[in-house]
Amino acid sequence: MTKTKERLLFASFFFEALKPHSVSLLETLITIADAGVSAATRVEVRATEAALGIKTDTL
What we know:
The chain has helices at 3-18, 22-57. It contains 2 helices and no strands. The N and C termini lie far apart (77 Å). The relative contact order is 0.06. The chain is mostly helical. The mean pLDDT is 86.
């Protein structure tokens, strides 16, 4: 077998082994992405609140 065929064979076995877990993996990735978006949103809100607080304190 050539290296390319060996790699493709390995990849096909690897993805075949992941198939039963694909839904779980996708749900985990979606959860992580949602958590990242939530964290980024919280940071933006806190930064805006802090900026407004500084403007209010200096008046």
